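Side project, low priority. Logging it here so it doesn't get lost.
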Amino acid sequence: MVNLNMNLISPDLRKRFEDMRHQLSSMTMKVHTLSTNKAEVRLIKDQCSEANVRGFTLVQDEPESVGGTGNGPMPTDYFIASIGFCESVILARNASVANLTIDSLETTLIGTWDRRGLFDIEAVTPNFKTIAVETKITTKDPVQKVVEVANQTHRRCPFHSTQSRATEMIFRLNVNGQNVPL
Protein backbone atom coordinates (compact mmCIF):
# COMPACT_ATOMS: atom_id res chain seq x y z
CA MET A 1 0.00 0.00 0.00
CA VAL A 2 1.33 3.43 -0.97
CA ASN A 3 1.53 6.04 1.77
CA LEU A 4 0.53 9.22 -0.07
CA ASN A 5 1.56 11.42 2.85
CA MET A 6 5.24 10.52 2.80
CA ASN A 7 7.92 12.05 0.59
CA LEU A 8 10.42 9.34 -0.41
CA ILE A 9 13.15 11.98 -0.85
CA SER A 10 14.73 13.05 2.44
CA PRO A 11 15.20 16.81 2.99
CA ASP A 12 19.00 16.64 3.41
CA LEU A 13 19.53 14.99 0.02
CA ARG A 14 19.26 18.30 -1.88
CA LYS A 15 22.16 19.91 -0.01
CA ARG A 16 24.30 16.81 -0.48
CA PHE A 17 23.84 16.86 -4.27
CA GLU A 18 24.18 20.62 -4.61
CA ASP A 19 27.51 20.33 -2.75
CA MET A 20 28.58 17.42 -4.98
CA ARG A 21 27.67 19.35 -8.14
CA HIS A 22 29.57 22.43 -6.93
CA GLN A 23 32.63 20.33 -6.07
CA LEU A 24 32.62 18.59 -9.47
CA SER A 25 32.11 21.80 -11.43
CA SER A 26 34.98 23.55 -9.63
CA MET A 27 37.58 20.83 -10.24
CA THR A 28 40.28 22.06 -12.58
CA MET A 29 41.69 18.62 -13.46
CA LYS A 30 38.88 16.69 -15.15
CA VAL A 31 40.69 13.40 -14.49
CA HIS A 32 39.47 13.78 -10.89
CA THR A 33 35.86 13.75 -12.06
CA LEU A 34 36.03 10.25 -13.54
CA SER A 35 34.43 7.37 -11.67
CA THR A 36 35.43 3.72 -11.99
CA ASN A 37 33.38 0.64 -11.20
CA LYS A 38 34.99 -2.75 -10.65
CA ALA A 39 33.56 -6.24 -10.34
CA GLU A 40 35.56 -9.40 -9.66
CA VAL A 41 33.69 -12.42 -11.03
CA ARG A 42 34.51 -16.09 -10.62
CA LEU A 43 32.80 -19.15 -12.01
CA ILE A 44 31.40 -21.37 -9.25
CA LYS A 45 30.20 -24.28 -11.41
CA ASP A 46 28.69 -24.71 -14.86
CA GLN A 47 26.83 -21.41 -15.44
CA CYS A 48 26.74 -20.12 -11.87
CA SER A 49 29.09 -17.23 -11.05
CA GLU A 50 29.73 -15.04 -8.06
CA ALA A 51 30.77 -11.39 -8.24
CA ASN A 52 32.32 -9.19 -5.60
CA VAL A 53 31.41 -5.53 -6.02
CA ARG A 54 32.50 -3.06 -3.31
CA GLY A 55 32.26 -5.82 -0.69
CA PHE A 56 28.84 -7.04 -1.83
CA THR A 57 28.47 -10.58 -3.19
CA LEU A 58 26.18 -11.09 -6.16
CA VAL A 59 25.26 -14.53 -7.48
CA GLN A 60 24.12 -15.12 -11.03
CA ASP A 61 22.89 -18.34 -12.57
CA GLU A 62 20.85 -19.56 -15.48
CA PRO A 63 17.49 -21.32 -15.09
CA GLU A 64 17.47 -25.09 -14.84
CA SER A 65 15.77 -25.22 -18.26
CA VAL A 66 19.04 -24.13 -19.90
CA GLY A 67 21.50 -26.04 -17.72
CA GLY A 68 21.78 -23.75 -14.72
CA THR A 69 20.75 -24.40 -11.16
CA GLY A 70 18.43 -21.39 -10.83
CA ASN A 71 20.32 -20.06 -7.79
CA GLY A 72 20.18 -16.44 -8.90
CA PRO A 73 19.11 -13.99 -11.55
CA MET A 74 20.62 -14.29 -15.03
CA PRO A 75 23.17 -11.69 -16.20
CA THR A 76 20.49 -10.17 -18.45
CA ASP A 77 18.23 -9.80 -15.39
CA TYR A 78 20.94 -7.86 -13.56
CA PHE A 79 21.50 -5.77 -16.68
CA ILE A 80 17.85 -4.76 -16.98
CA ALA A 81 17.48 -4.23 -13.21
CA SER A 82 20.59 -2.03 -13.23
CA ILE A 83 18.95 0.36 -15.67
CA GLY A 84 15.99 0.65 -13.29
CA PHE A 85 18.23 1.05 -10.24
CA CYS A 86 20.20 3.80 -11.98
CA GLU A 87 17.04 5.61 -13.05
CA SER A 88 15.72 5.54 -9.47
CA VAL A 89 18.96 6.91 -8.06
CA ILE A 90 19.37 9.67 -10.64
CA LEU A 91 15.68 10.58 -10.52
CA ALA A 92 15.87 10.86 -6.71
CA ARG A 93 18.90 13.14 -7.03
CA ASN A 94 17.23 15.33 -9.64
CA ALA A 95 13.97 15.42 -7.67
CA SER A 96 15.80 16.51 -4.51
CA VAL A 97 17.51 19.40 -6.29
CA ALA A 98 14.25 20.44 -8.01
CA ASN A 99 12.27 20.21 -4.75
CA LEU A 100 10.00 17.61 -6.36
CA THR A 101 8.02 15.60 -3.82
CA ILE A 102 7.78 11.90 -4.64
CA ASP A 103 5.19 9.85 -2.79
CA SER A 104 5.83 6.73 -4.86
CA LEU A 105 8.25 5.77 -7.63
CA GLU A 106 8.15 2.48 -9.49
CA THR A 107 9.95 1.56 -12.68
CA THR A 108 9.23 -1.46 -14.87
CA LEU A 109 11.72 -2.46 -17.54
CA ILE A 110 11.29 -4.95 -20.35
CA GLY A 111 14.21 -5.84 -22.61
CA THR A 112 13.89 -7.91 -25.77
CA TRP A 113 16.73 -9.84 -27.37
CA ASP A 114 17.03 -12.84 -29.68
CA ARG A 115 18.51 -15.97 -28.07
CA ARG A 116 19.57 -17.32 -31.49
CA GLY A 117 22.48 -14.87 -31.21
CA LEU A 118 23.95 -17.02 -28.43
CA PHE A 119 24.73 -19.65 -31.07
CA ASP A 120 25.37 -17.50 -34.18
CA ILE A 121 22.18 -18.83 -35.79
CA GLU A 122 21.29 -16.98 -39.00
CA ALA A 123 23.86 -14.26 -38.18
CA VAL A 124 21.59 -12.95 -35.40
CA THR A 125 23.33 -10.92 -32.70
CA PRO A 126 22.38 -11.35 -29.03
CA ASN A 127 22.13 -7.64 -28.27
CA PHE A 128 18.98 -6.13 -26.79
CA LYS A 129 16.76 -4.94 -29.63
CA THR A 130 14.59 -2.73 -27.43
CA ILE A 131 14.38 -1.76 -23.81
CA ALA A 132 11.09 -0.31 -22.59
CA VAL A 133 11.25 1.75 -19.40
CA GLU A 134 7.99 2.70 -17.70
CA THR A 135 8.25 4.99 -14.70
CA LYS A 136 5.24 5.55 -12.43
CA ILE A 137 5.38 8.50 -10.06
CA THR A 138 2.84 9.73 -7.54
CA THR A 139 3.22 13.34 -6.46
CA LYS A 140 1.26 16.43 -5.51
CA ASP A 141 3.59 18.63 -7.60
CA PRO A 142 2.81 19.87 -11.14
CA VAL A 143 3.10 17.29 -13.93
CA GLN A 144 5.40 19.57 -15.94
CA LYS A 145 7.91 19.56 -13.06
CA VAL A 146 7.89 15.75 -13.09
CA VAL A 147 8.43 15.73 -16.87
CA GLU A 148 11.41 18.10 -16.51
CA VAL A 149 12.98 15.90 -13.82
CA ALA A 150 12.34 12.73 -15.87
CA ASN A 151 13.98 14.27 -18.95
CA GLN A 152 16.97 15.38 -16.84
CA THR A 153 17.20 11.83 -15.50
CA HIS A 154 17.35 10.34 -19.00
CA ARG A 155 20.14 12.76 -19.96
CA ARG A 156 22.13 12.26 -16.74
CA CYS A 157 21.78 8.53 -16.03
CA PRO A 158 24.95 6.63 -17.06
CA PHE A 159 22.91 3.56 -18.07
CA HIS A 160 20.43 5.52 -20.15
CA SER A 161 23.21 7.49 -21.78
CA THR A 162 25.18 4.37 -22.66
CA GLN A 163 22.29 2.16 -23.72
CA SER A 164 20.46 4.75 -25.78
CA ARG A 165 23.49 4.86 -28.08
CA ALA A 166 23.32 1.10 -28.67
CA THR A 167 19.67 0.07 -28.28
CA GLU A 168 16.28 1.54 -28.98
CA MET A 169 15.12 2.89 -25.64
CA ILE A 170 11.40 3.48 -25.17
CA PHE A 171 10.49 5.76 -22.27
CA ARG A 172 7.03 6.11 -20.76
CA LEU A 173 6.08 8.35 -17.85
CA ASN A 174 2.99 7.90 -15.70
CA VAL A 175 2.25 10.62 -13.14
CA ASN A 176 -0.57 10.08 -10.66
CA GLY A 177 -2.01 7.30 -12.81
CA GLN A 178 -1.96 9.28 -16.08
CA ASN A 179 0.37 8.68 -19.03
CA VAL A 180 2.33 11.88 -19.75
CA PRO A 181 4.35 12.68 -22.89
CA LEU A 182 8.07 13.20 -22.43
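Brief comment: The mean pLDDT is 90.
Revisit when time allows.
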